[in-house]
Amino acid sequence: MHLALNFQRVDPSRGGAETYVADLCRQLTQAGHRVDLYAESWADDCLPPEVNIVPVAGTGRTKLERIHSFAKNSEQALSQAHHDCSVGFVNTWAHDVIIPKEAFTRAA
To answer: How far is CA 107 from CA 5, 45, 103, in A?
Structure first.
């Protein structure tokens, strides 16, 4: 299955959600899935080499502006690609599946 995951920053040293997304990428590729990660930034060596990283910008002067910009730019990038399923985390939209922040707290 060709999957799109969408999360602004993937850096396991920053916390639970970031670790969750990196671990999910690893598990999905090990299971034989094709994974495209749409992200603004990621830590070196936290993702398996099989993950295709699609850079998505998040711009603005405030944190809220950067979050909104990243979400809008993600929507545009995802609309130009084809995936069997797209999964968004926290502050994005236009996905087949959205995983809210509360899910990370229970998974930790």
So the answer is: 17, 23, 6
